[in-house]
Amino acid sequence: MIEQTLSIIKPDAVERNLENKIKSFFKAKNLKILKSKKVQITKEEATEFYKEHQTKPFYQNLCNYLSSGPIVVMILEGEKAISINREIMGATDPLKAEEGTLRKIYGISIDKNSVHGSDGLESAKTGIGFFFDK
Ligand code: CMP
Q: pLDDT tens digit string along 1-35?
C-alpha cells in the first residue's frame, strides 16, 4: 500500500548540516520526499506535537529539545512508507540501533537521536496535518 509518513530531522542533525545526507537515505529506499521545509517550533507547539508522551518522565525535556533550534519536516511517500522509514531510522536509542541505520550512524543519545518518524497510519495523518495543513 502506498503510504505517506511524517519525517523530522531534529535540531542536532540540522545543526551538523546532515539534511542532504539523511535525505539520500530516504531516496535510496524509494521514498519520495513530497514536501520539505525548515521550521522552528515553539515549546507550546512541541508539547502539542508530542502530547502522546505527556505522562512520560522525559516529556518536558523532549519538548524543550524539539523547539531548541531549526528542524526539517518532510512528507515521505512510497510503498509501506511508515515501516520503511522506521527501518531506515533504527531503534529510538542510538546505542541499540541496528548497523547502517540513521540513528546508529548519526544519533548522539536517546534525546538527540537525529530523526523522528510516524509510528502508524494515525500518527502519520496527525503529524502531517500538524506541520503541513495549516
Ligand atoms: P521520537 O521518535 O521523536 O519520539 C519520542 C522521543 O522521545 C524519542 O524519539 C526520543 O528522542 C525521546 N526519548 C527520550 N527518552 C526516551 C525514552 N526513555 N524512551 C523513548 N523515547 C525517549
A: 999 999 999 999 999 999 999 999 999 999 999 99
Task: Give the span between the Cα atoms of 2 and 31, in whole angstroms.
Answer: 10
Active-site annotation holds for 116: yes
In this predicted model, what pLDDT tens digit does every residue of 84-111 receive, in sequence order? 999 999 999 999 999 999 999 999 999 9
Ligand 1 atom with minimal separation from the 66 CA: 3
Query: What is the Cα–Cα distance from 119 to 86, expressed in whole angstroms?
Result: 7
> Which residue in the list 8, 62, 116, 131 is annotated as catalytic?
116
Name every protein residue with a CB atom under 6 angstroms from any ligand 1 atom: 53, 58, 62, 92, 110-111, 113, 116
In this prediction the pTM is 0.97
